[in-house]
């Protein structure tokens, strides 16, 4: 029997079907591709391009998008520091379950704090947490502003907006960094290809 957090007298139950069996069935390795970056850096676009490209190769993926998860599981959370941490923690735990199911789980949330991203990394077996940093400068994200949120934040109508009056801690240990070369930003499809090459080289696209 164990006590975990506020749960007392609980017992882990093993199943006779394990991660390796599921991976064999799916002919892939479960993992988490953790896409982090400012609002407007292209996280959701990359996640969708990656999911489509892997799907067309017969690989099972699932996207956990910060915006979307906040419509359900995380709708009780604000954008205050504590709630952002809880948002990241919960998405990390759910992503871990998807990876255990043998699925290539793509998360796309700002996840501004290094310690929270690292805590999610620690939840997974070594190598299975693949951090992708969309290193797009603030001025580029702000010029894109597809939802008009930067404009509202600059006008003081949204408080605590990441990059404006709330912090973003750039990752220092990402497996993949995607950034502009000169004034050009690689296309989402090309960025997805970079991630897929990493998955191939590291054996995630076979069982
Ligand atoms: N204050 C503030 N700061 C940043 N972002 C804000 C804020 N308020 C609303 N939004 C919208 O919420 C999206 C970010 O949600 P996340 O769950 O990814 O954020 S976090 O990881 O908890 O920081 C983010 O979506 P993306 O633009 O896709 O990143 C915004 O559309
Ligand atoms: N690689 C890219 N090059 C140029 N524009 C992009 C790229 N990726 C995304 N965009 C554009 O940037 C904006 C923000 O993209 P989005 O995926 O919504 O970002 P995020 O999820 O990080 O907020 C959208 O208008 C999108 O079309």
TrEMBL record:
<dbReference type="GO" id="GO:0005524">
    <property type="term" value="F:ATP binding"/>
</dbReference>
<dbReference type="GO" id="GO:0019344">
    <property type="term" value="P:cysteine biosynthetic process"/>
</dbReference>
<keyword id="KW-0198">Cysteine biosynthesis</keyword>
<dbReference type="InterPro" id="IPR059117">
    <property type="entry name" value="APS_kinase_dom"/>
</dbReference>
<keyword id="KW-0418">Kinase</keyword>
<dbReference type="InterPro" id="IPR027417">
    <property type="entry name" value="P-loop_NTPase"/>
</dbReference>
<dbReference type="GO" id="GO:0000103">
    <property type="term" value="P:sulfate assimilation"/>
</dbReference>
<protein>
    <recommendedName>
        <fullName>Adenylyl-sulfate kinase</fullName>
        <ecNumber>2.7.1.25</ecNumber>
    </recommendedName>
</protein>
<dbReference type="GO" id="GO:0004020">
    <property type="term" value="F:adenylylsulfate kinase activity"/>
</dbReference>
<keyword id="KW-0547">Nucleotide-binding</keyword>
<dbReference type="GO" id="GO:0005737">
    <property type="term" value="C:cytoplasm"/>
</dbReference>
<dbReference type="GO" id="GO:0070814">
    <property type="term" value="P:hydrogen sulfide biosynthetic process"/>
</dbReference>
<keyword id="KW-0028">Amino-acid biosynthesis</keyword>
<comment type="function">
    <text>Catalyzes the synthesis of activated sulfate.</text>
</comment>
<dbReference type="InterPro" id="IPR002891">
    <property type="entry name" value="APS"/>
</dbReference>
<comment type="similarity">
    <text>Belongs to the APS kinase family.</text>
</comment>
<dbReference type="Pfam" id="PF01583">
    <property type="entry name" value="APS_kinase"/>
</dbReference>
<keyword id="KW-0808">Transferase</keyword>
<feature type="domain" description="APS kinase">
    <location>
        <begin position="29"/>
        <end position="178"/>
    </location>
</feature>
<keyword id="KW-0067">ATP-binding</keyword>
<comment type="pathway">
    <text>Sulfur metabolism; hydrogen sulfide biosynthesis; sulfite from sulfate: step 2/3.</text>
</comment>
């Amino acid at each position: 029997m164990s006590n975990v957090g506020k749960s007392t007298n609980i017992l882990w139950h093993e199943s006779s079907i394990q991660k390796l069996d599921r991976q064999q069935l799916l002919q892939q390795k479960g993992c988490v591709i953790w896409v982090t970056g400012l609002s407007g850096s292209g996280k959701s676009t990359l996640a969708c391009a990656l999911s489509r490209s892997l799907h067309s190769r017969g690989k099972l993926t699932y996207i956990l998008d910060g915006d979307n998860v906040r419509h359900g599981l995380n709708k009780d959370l604000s954008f205050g520091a504590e709630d952002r941490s809880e948002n990241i923690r919960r998405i990390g735990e759910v992503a871990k379950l998807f990876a255990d199911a043998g699925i290539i789980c793509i998360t796309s949330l700002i996840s501004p704090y290094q310690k929270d991203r690292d805590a999610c990394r620690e939840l997974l077996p070594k190598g299975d947490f693949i951090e992708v940093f969309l290193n797009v400068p603030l001025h580029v994200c702000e010029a894109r502003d597809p939802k008009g949120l930067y404009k509202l934040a600059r006008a003081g109508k949204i408080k605590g907006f990441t990059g404006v009056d709330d912090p973003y801690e750039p990752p220092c240990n990402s497996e993949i960094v995607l950034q502009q070369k000169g004034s050009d930003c690689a296309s989402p499809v090309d960025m997805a290809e970079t991630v897929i090459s990493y998955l191939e080289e590291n054996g995630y696209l076979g069982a």
